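Subject: Interface between my chains keeps coming out wrong

I've been trying for a while to get a sensible model of this assembly. When I model each chain on its own everything looks fine, but I need the whole thing in one frame so I can look at the contacts. Pasting all components below, labels as-is. Any help appreciated, I'm running out of ideas.
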Amino acid sequence: MSEFGNFCLLLAFCLGLYALLASVLGAVQKQHRIVRSAERAALAACGSIALALSSLVYLLVTSDFSVSHVASASNRALPVYYKIAALWGAHDGSLLLWVFVTSIFSGIVIYQNRFRYRDMMPYVVAVLMVNLSFFLCLNLFLSNPFNQLVQANADGTLQKFIPQDGRGLNPLLQYWAMVIHPPILYLGFIGFVVPFAFAFAALVTKQLGDSWIRTIRRWTLVPWMFLGAGLILGGKWAYVEMGWGGYWGWDPVENASLMPWLTGTAFLHSVIVQERKGMLKVWNVFLIMITYLLGVFGTFITRSGVINSVHAFADSSLGPFFLYYMSAVFFVSMYLIIDRLPYLKSERPLDSVLSRESAFLFNNLVLLVACFAVFWGTMFPVLSEWVQGQKMTVGPPFFNNVNIPIGLFLLFLTGVGPLFAWRKTSVESLKKAFFWPVIFSVPFCAALMIAGMRDFYAVVSFTLCVFVLITVVREFYKGASVRAKNTGESFLSAIVNLTLKNKRRYGGYIVHVAIVVIFVGLTGNAFNKEVQQKLSKGESMHIGRYMLRMVDYREADTPNYQLAEVKLEAYKDGKLIRTMTPEKRLYKAGDQQTTTEVELYSTPKEDLYVVFSGVANGGKGYEIHAFVNPLVFWVWFGAAIMVFGTLVTLLPDRKGAFVTPQLSFSEAAGIGETLRIK
Amino acid sequence: MLVAAACTLLVALVGLYVLTPLFREPKGNLDVELLAETELDRLLNRKAVIYSNIKDLEFEYKMGRLSDADYGRLGAGYKAEAALVLQKLDQLGAEKNVDEQIEKEISVRRGKLSSAPPSQSAPGFASCPSCGSATVPGKKFCADCGQRLA
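Reply #2:
Try treating it as a single job with all components included. I did that and got this:
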C-alpha cells in the first residue's frame, strides 16, 4: 500500500506540472481544448492526492510500522480516531494533509468556474498548480510519509525494518480539539490561495475591474472563517492540554495563524470600498498577496524549525525552500502590480476624513500595524541572531504592551465605522449617530469605576464593548423598524428579513457582536487569580470564592498510559459544587512523555481551573495549582457567534438576486432630473 | 504485482481523462477571449452598484442616521454618478436593447476570431429607427414606441 500511495503522490505531482504548463500554453495560444485538458489534469491531481491520503490512513489504521510515518506517529494501543488523527501527528503526514486540503480547494474552484471567467481561469489554474506542485514537491522529495524504515546490516547493506510497535502519537495531541484543529486551520491557511490566484490572474489579463473581486467574495470569507475558528480551537487545546492556565501565549505558531487572519480581515473590509467606490485597488491586490504569503509563512514557521514552539515540527530541512518560494511569489507579484499600476487607478479620491471609506482605511492601517507588531515579535529571535549572533526572544509582555492598545483601538473602530456614512458625514449627523452609544457607555464606564475597577485597559475594553454593542443593536433596531413600517411585517420577521435581504452587512454586524463577546472574554484576563499549594489528605486551599479540599489520591494503569490523579472537593461560598479529579499521565509509547489533564469547572462568569502538578514531600503531599479565570467562556461563545455570522453572510442569494436593484419612482425621477440638468 | 497493475490502470484512466479534450472539441467551443469583461459589463455592474448605493442611502436616511443636508448632498452625488453611467450606456445603446448589444459584441468577437469582417446583425431582425429596440419582422409599428415601420 505504501508503494501505491507514493505512486499516487508522484502522479499528482506530474499532473500538477502538466496542468501548470498546459494552462499557460492554452492561454497564450488561446486554445480552449488545451486549457480544458489542463483543468482536467488539475482535477485528476486532486483525485490522485485523495488516493494517496487514503493509502496513508489505511496504513495508520492497520498499524503498518514498516512505514516511517506510521512508526513515528502511531502505536497499537491508540484508539482508531487517534490513529487517523496521527496522519497529522508527524511532519510528513501533516504536509500530505496540507497538500490534500490545497487540492480540494483548487479542485472546487476549477470545477465551479469551468464555464465562467474563461479568460482568467487558465492563469488561476496556473497559480493554483504552482502552489500545489510546490507543496507536492516538498512532500515527495523532502518529507515523504511513505518512506520505508530500513536498518543497516553489518556488511553495509540495507534491509527492511519493522518495529514491534510505533512511537505513538504525541500525548499533547490526544485531545478532541486537536483532532479537528489542524484540518480547520489548514482550510484557513491555504484557502487564501484562491483569492490570490484570482488577483494574480486579473493582473496578468489586465481584467482589473470588479469581476474578480465579486468572484472571490465567498472564497475570502470561507478561509477567514476557518482560520478564525482554527485559532480559537488552538486556544481551547492549549487551555485544556498545556496546563498553564491560559489559552494564548503569543507562541510563534499561534502568531503565524494570527497574522494572515489580521490581513485577511483588513482585505474583507477594504474590498468593500473597492466594490462600492472603485478605490483602494492597488491596496487590495497587495493585501491579498500578503495574506496568501503570510499563510505560507505560517507553514514555514511551523515546519522550518527556525523558531522554537510548542506546536512546531522542529528541525525540518524545508526552511530554505519556503524562503525561495515566498521570495519568488513576492517579487513576481510585486512586478505585476507595478507594471499594471495604470489599470489600478482609483476611480475617485477620498472625499472626506469623516467618511466610511476613511474608517475602513483606518481599520486597515491599524490591522496592518498589529500584524507587523506580531511579525516583529515573532521574528525577533531570528533577526537578533543575524544581527548580534545571539538569539533573543521577546515574551508575552512585549506582545501584550503593543497589541492591547492596538486591539482596543480596533474595537473602537468596529463601533465607530458603521456610524459614518459613505463619502462624507457632517458633524451634525455624527452627533446624532454617537448619541445613544455614548449615553449608554459613559455611565457604564462610571459605574465600573465606582464599583472599584481600576485596571485601565479593562475599563476601556468593557466600555468600548458596550459602545459597539449599542451601535450594532441600534443598526438592527432602526433597520427592522423602517422595514416593519414599510412592509407591515412584524418586528421579528422584519429583523430576519432585513438580515436575509442584506446578508453581507447584517452578517458582518453579527461578526462584530462576536468580536465584542470575544473581547469581553479576553478582558477577563486582567482579573485572573492563581494559587499553588501542597495539600495532604483532608487539607484545603482557598482561591477567590472557591475552596478545594483534598479527598483522595490514586494511581491506575491503562493500555495507553499510566495515570495518577487527586480527588478534590470544590466548594463555592461554602457549598459543594462538584468533585474534581485532575490527572497526571505518563504515556508508555515513544519518549514516555508526561502530561497534565486539567479539571475545569466552567461557568459564564468564571472558570475554576485545577492542575495536579505532582506528588511532593515523598508522597505525603500533593502539589495543586489552581486558577480562577473570569469570563473565559465568552471567548469560545464569541467564536461560535463569529462562525454563525460568517455563515449568514455566506448564505446563497435567492434566484435573481444579482439583477440590478430596482429604484423607487422618486429615486428614478431624481436621476432623470439630473440627466436633464446635465 | 497487484500494486503495479493498480498503478498502470490508474495511469491509463487518468491519461484518457486528461488527454481526451485535446482530440475532441468541447461543446460550445468559444474562444477564451470571447467571455472577457466588456465595457458594457463594466457599465452595467457600475450601474448596479450605484443603484444599490442609492437604495442604501435612502434606507439609512429613513433610519435617521443622516441629516437632511447630508442626505440631499449624497443623494445628488450618487444621482450625478448614475446619470453619467446611464449616459454612457445610452451611447452604447445598451439601455435600450441589452440583448442586441450582446449579440453585437459576440459578432465583433467572432469576426475577430475568424479574421473575417464583423458580421451584421442576424438576418430577419431589424431595429426601430426611433427608439432602437428590436422589431419583429412583418410588424407595421414598433411595439415599444409606436413608430411606424417601413
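Reply #3:
Confirming on my end. Chain A touches chain B through 63 residues (CB under 8 Å).
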